[in-house]
Amino acid sequence: MARKRRLTGEAALEAAYSKTDHAPLLEAWGVTLSDDMLRLALTHRSFAHENENLPHNERLEFLGDAVLGVSVAEQLYREFPTRPESDLSKMRAGVVNMYALADVARELGMGPYILLGRGEMHTNGSDKHSILSDTVEAILGAIYLEHGFEKARETILRIFASRITNAPSTGLNMDWKTVLLEKLSDMKLLLPSYETSASGPEHSQTFSSELKVGENLQTAGTGRTKKEAEHAAAKAMVELLNGPAPQAQKASGKATS
Q1: DSSP readout, 49-92?
Q2: Bridge pairing between strands 250-254 and 217-223
Q3: Exposed, middle or buried: residue 244 (CB in 10 Å: 0-12, 13-18, 19+)?
Q4: Cα(236)–Cα(244) distance, rounded to whole angstroms?
Q5: Which amino acids are annotated as binding site for Mg(2+), given as ranges?
Q6: Is 137 a catalytic residue?
Q7: In angstroms, rounded to a whole number, what is the distance separating the alpha carbons of residues 159 and 153?
Q8: pLDDT per residue over 48-65, tens digit each?
Q9: What EC number(s) is this enzyme filed under (predicted)?
């Protein structure tokens, strides 16, 4: 018996998209979208590249990122009128970073709806922070195109309401280990490794952490706990990476409250 031919191109896209009832996803978002727009928003580049280089969601992601950024920035400006710009920038980062967006995607149950290539499917791509966060932005881009800015903004403020309200506690006390992971992902660098040790009497120990990224980048941090020391080392690494051409450099830091 002849082997069944695998669908490719538009036929594969339609078949993969049609397998799933998307009503629960749209209900979770509280919006309506045409099938054409929703299908595009859910098509990851890995699926597109395996199927004759179909259009994928990165252009929508670009739009959604812009709409999300300005919507959150404006709401923070209005909700926290006494905060300086430096605080508002950190608060916005706490609301719209990759990990926060991935959490939103998980809360909305988005993972199973994303159309992925076989490689990403085999490596649990539907739960990867980057893929989830990018798809959230793509959906926002789709809402903007079909319904306009006000509807997109209303959707953002509804879905991100608690995160915006809690921004002073999440944004101003940055989880530097998370920030570092995001930075390394953006720069396509290796994951960090921490080596942490304690010194001094048990009731009053000082922890020291050495952090390495690859062979050339190294920072250190100290603190009253292991967590504080690693936090300080991660903060120092972020600052190092933000500096001019970080190569074979070292930096150190202390835990900050």
Answers
A1: HHTTS---THHHHHHHHHHHHHHHHHHHHHH-TT--HHHHHHHH
A2: parallel
A3: exposed
A4: 14
A5: 61, 134, 137
A6: yes
A7: 10
A8: 999 889 999 999 999 999
A9: 3.1.26.3
